[in-house]
Design brief:
The structure is a single chain. This protein is α+β, with helices and mostly antiparallel strands. It has 2 domains: 44 residues; 97 residues, Lipocalin. It has 2 helices and 8 strands, in the order H-H-E-E-E-E-E-E-E-E. About 7% of the residues have low confidence.
Length: 146
């Protein structure tokens, strides 16, 4: 009788451990699945073109803003549009509108009349934008306006 009780105890213990292990595997699969979704969202991160869209406030002069509206770069000062230009993204500064563009490039070329003005994107994310104005070499820092 005592052997039967010990045997039952061992069997029940093994079933409990087996059950816990199989649930752990399911939980691990669920966790991995969740991580894959998170990683996929990060992989689906937008292009630089998409990140640029919206209004940005200069970190040194709160009255100075730029807005990216589709392919327009709009200079705003003290709430008033001061000028606008067409912009193109590329992997290099463009010298002609017909050159190849790239929505994930790190160079912004502004087309102002017949002139081409170039900025390098040093950093862009959902909240911060840093540009180097290549004509002068100075860095401009912006925060995304909410």
């Amino acid at each position: 009788m005592k052997n039967k009780v010990v045997f039952l105890f061992v069997v029940i213990s093994m079933l409990f451990v087996w059950s816990a292990c199989s649930n752990s595997g399911e939980n691990k699969q669920k966790q991995e699945s969740k991580e894959e979704v998170t990683i996929d969202k990060e992989k689906a991160a937008t292009t630089k073109y998409d990140l640029l869209q919206g209004r940005w406030t200069d970190t040194e002069d709160a009255k100075s803003e730029i807005e990216f509206a589709k392919n327009k770069w709009i200079f705003i000062y003290d709430g008033k549009n001061s000028s606008e230009a067409e912009f193109l993204l590329s992997s290099k500064c463009l010298t002609a509108k017909t050159e190849a563009t790239n929505n994930d490039g790190n160079m912004i070329t502004l087309l102002e009349g017949g002139d081409f003005v170039c900025y390098e994107i040093l950093k862009v994310d959902a909240e911060n934008l840093s540009l180097s104005f290549l004509s002068r070499g100075n860095t401009l820092n912006f925060k995304k306006k909410k």
